[in-house]
Amino acid sequence: MIVAALPAFRRALLTVSVAAAVTLPNAPLLAASAPARARQGMVVTQDEIGSKVGFEVIRAGGNAIDAAVATAFALAVTHPTAGNLGGGGFIVYRPAKGEPVTYDFREKAPAAASPTMWLKDGKYDPELHHFSHRAVGVPGTVAGLHLAWKEQGSRPWKELLQPAIRLARDGFEVSHGLARSLEGMLPHFRKYPASLAQFSKGGAPYAAGDLLRQPDLARSLERIAENGPAGFYEGETAQLIAKEMAANDGLITLADLKAYTAKRRAPVTGTYRGYGIISMPPPSSGGIAVLQILNILEGYDLAAAGPGAARNAHLMAEAMRRAFADRARHVGDPDFNPDLPVTKLISKEHAAALRRTINPTRASRSSPDSFEWPYESQETTHFSVVDAQRNAVALTYTLEYGYGSRIVVPGAGFLLNNEMGDFNAAPGVTDDKGLIGTTANLAQPGKRMLSSMSPTILTKDGQLFMVTGAMGGRTIINSVVNTIVNVVDHGLNAQEAVDAPRLHHQWLPDRIAVERNAFSPDTLALLRSMGHTLFEGPEQGVAEVIVLNAKECLLEGGVDRRVPDGFAAGR
User: Fold this and answer.
1) What whole-number distance in Å separates Cα of residue 139 and Cα of residue 378?
2) What is the secondary structure of 231-243 as a DSSP string?
3) Which of 36, 281, 533, 547 meets the CB 3.0–4.6 Å disulfide criterion with 494?
């Protein structure tokens, strides 16, 4: 059945500011479900300024990696809730010619980390795990962007950082969305003088239209522009980070910073109904889970029932349930888990075996003697880039929570992550209240923590077809699956695929999370009759999507209007 409430859902999405509408620069507002369209290239992000910075690089002759680097550094200035210098993430890159590759710049645990580092007097301390200087992992963003640029970029490194430097030094106009976000964070910033100084006007909140200048951040960016990664991991910036750590019982040292390296990794790949899937390998769990869910769903005719059908929601939830169970049992940093069974997990045979355990009319039960997932922050950001030659980038990076640890490095002007919170709490603490103590994702020196980030690229007949990814903690995986199913199975365009209602199941807690007022009452009643427990909650994830309309040789962009300020730039 078609989702009855979908028009109302779309109308709700359209109540955001005009800046969030799906438009191209100097173009009129498009209809609610119409995608942005362009021929020469496109950048789709959560931030209008960031999108425009990236597309200007393409217009000046840069390729998709050049545009991604410039965009990522610009977002570190204009989207501080997730854009960053002090965090980490992943890139999936598919060149128009040649083999796809991924870049892993996930944060690492410092050398002094241990599996029991968040125990105080033998008891787990969540505040220490998530909201302290010990929650900060060694940042990876600068090293990862530089490695991708060094191997794939075409424009000068310094040139790509100039827009971010200008935005930080000269300032930019605060949007309504950013003003609300910064005001909401003021109580947290008051704990850290450098954070309060950077993101408030002497303790008063910024208002929409105010100019936000960040001179310390501009100087940090200038050092990176001049010296590459050494401008961050060595010298003045590194000394400022190490000083802040030493003064506040943090673990990161100058040696930790100098030792950090990003890694080039082979993507995980597969197929779905004849489309090629290219996604991120561990330490992200995203690529494995996306492929596993799609492999299971490939055995069903989803198109016959249509988007929003209870049957499809049931089958998708059951596939998600099984993928998340495998995620918990098996996935962690491959450099510390050499026996990680990636090939098996993404195989058609494994999916077929899991499919045989699914009752098409009745919900399964997740094991009651296992555990729920602990909280994973929604505050990641994803953007998609395609250039004129059809090189494509899917990039997802984060600080973990919104504004990360909320700690700005004094004198350096950027926020530090709290990604150590993505490691399991401690050995042997697995319980039904949300703690996990399984081995694969325990903290160890130099280890990268598990992630749900799922930057993904699809191909058709050897050509680029779709670039997708999302923010949203563990909902990232299923948000990406939702966008793919919406386009491939249901024939929705990029904007429709992003706008459509989403559902999420993560094994435990044993329930389907659906977006409030998005699915029809009949659909929800049918799901309950199948034995599903439903949780109606807020919007799930924020996806930014580009689909290549090969027939018209046009790029079509879908901007997620669940949050303000998203934008598709191109022409």
Assistant:
1) 19
2) HHHSHHHHHHHHH
3) 547
Q: How far is the C-alpha of 231 from the C-alpha of 520, rounded, in Å?
A: 54
* CB-based burial, 283-311: b 16+ in 10 Å, e otherwise: bbbbbbbbbbbbbbbbebebeebebbbbb
- 1 exposure class (CB count in 10 Å sphere: 0-12, 13-18, 19+): middle
Q: What is the DSSP string of 405-441?
A: TS-BPTTT--BPP-GGGGS-SSTT---TTS----GGG
> Tokens 């045989």 identify what position?
356
Question: pLDDT-derived band of residue 366, with 50, 70 and 90 as boundaries?
Answer: confident
User: Is the confidence at residue 26, as pLDDT, over 50?
Assistant: no
* Distance of alpha carbon 311 from the chain centroid: 29
Lookup: tokens for 356? 């045989």
Between CA 159 and CA 58 the distance in angstroms is 13
Does the N-terminal peptide bond of residue 215 adopt cis geometry, omega within 30 degrees of 0?
Answer: no
β-bridge partners, 471: 542
- Specify the residue for token string 């990232």: 476
pTM to 2 decimal places: 0.93
Q: Packing angle between helix 475-488 and helix 310-330, nearest 10 degrees?
A: 140
Instruction: State the amino acid at position 310 in one-letter form.
Output: A
Q: In the predicted model, is pLDDT for residue 565 greater than 70?
A: yes
Residue 381, strand partner residues: 397
Pick from 399, 351, 353, 363: nearest CA to 378? 399
Work out the pLDDT band at 429, boundaries 50, 70, 90. Answer: low
Strand 554-559 relative to strand 542-549, pairing: antiparallel
Classify strands 101-105 and 263-265 as parallel, antiparallel or unpaired. antiparallel
Distance, CA of 252 to CA of 241 (rounded, Å): 8
Q: What Cα–Cα distance (Å) separates residue 511 from each residue in 228, 388, 496, 534, 538?
A: 46, 43, 26, 5, 15
Q: Is 380 a catalytic residue?
A: yes
If phi > 0 it is left, if psi is from -120 to 50 it is alpha, else beta; for residue 139 that is beta
The pLDDT of residue 10:
32
Cα–Cα dist 107/68, whole Å: 19
Q: Which amino acid is at 153?
A: G
Gyration radius from the chain CA atoms: 22
Strand partners for 385: 43, 393
Produce one character per residue of 46-66: b if its CB has 16 or more CB atoms within 10 Å, e if not: bbbbbbbbbbbbbbeebbbbb
Which amino acid makes up residue 170? D
Angstrom distance (rounded) from CA 346 to CA 439: 21
Annotate 338-361 with three-state secondary structure. CCCCHHHHCCHHHHHHHHCCCECC
Backbone torsion region of residue 439, taken as left when φ is above 0, otherwise alpha when ψ lies between -120 and 50, otherwise beta = alpha
Cα–Cα distance, 50 to 555 (Å, whole number): 18
The Cα-based distances of 14 to 208, 466, 547 in angstroms read 20, 24, 22
pLDDT band at 123, cuts 50/70/90? confident
User: Two tokens at 38?
Assistant: 């362009």
The catalytically annotated residue of 253, 380, 475, 483 is 380
